[in-house]
Specification:
Strand content: 35-45%
Number of domains: 1
Bound molecules: flavin mononucleotide
CATH topology: Pnp Oxidase, Chain A
Structural class: mainly beta
Largest sheet: 7 strands, antiparallel
CATH superfamily: Electron Transport, Fmn-binding Protein, Chain A
Shape: globular
CATH class: Mainly Beta
Amino acid sequence: MKKNLGAKAILYPMPVLVVGTYDENGVANAMTAAWGGISEETEITICISDEHKTAKNLEVHKGFTVGIADVANMKAADFVGIVSGNKDSAKVEKTGWTVEKSSFVDAPIFAELPMVLECEVISYDAPSCRLIGRIVNVAADERVFNEDGKLDIAKLNPITYDPMNHTYHAIGECVGKAFANSKL
Ligand SMILES: Cc1cc2nc3c(=O)[nH]c(=O)nc-3n(C[C@H](O)[C@H](O)[C@H](O)COP(=O)(O)O)c2cc1C
């Protein structure tokens, strides 16, 4: 018997995305987003509240990065999801992250995050909070690839956000191959 929870923003797993932008003075900002995912081939959609500094930055620079938060960066990823660049322009500095400029889009990369999507803004609609971006490059640290040259999620060690309990959990264990079970 299933228990009804009503209409809620609950989905498992939810990502922990770190959206990187530059402000009007070229200062790097970061915010955490769990409401987002791939919406087309080379396209990502994220709900960004228009009150956030990130929303203002997107209008100015038309570019952003999406860093994948891992276990090692959990605290800093949580911090940038609480503190706003509207009130604290030194928020990224406080994380201790190393800021590098993307060579593909006008947005910062946080070197400590193991993987990043570099995106151009296709559209941002404030009333619906929808940011749609074109993924122009994906980059990841060499240490998170396996011997076949493919990304290894166990090495990446990303975290997922649990919106019911407000907790973070590690992802990584491989439990089987996909597209391998056409017969049961
Ligand atoms: C786990 C987590 C997930 C979040 N997901 C979102 C989200 O999907 N969309 C959003 O607009 N804000 C989200 N937030 C809130 C923003 O990250 C937060 O308000 C942040 O301070 C905004 O930063 P900014 O004003 O510097 O852009 C989330 C926060 C946390 C901790």
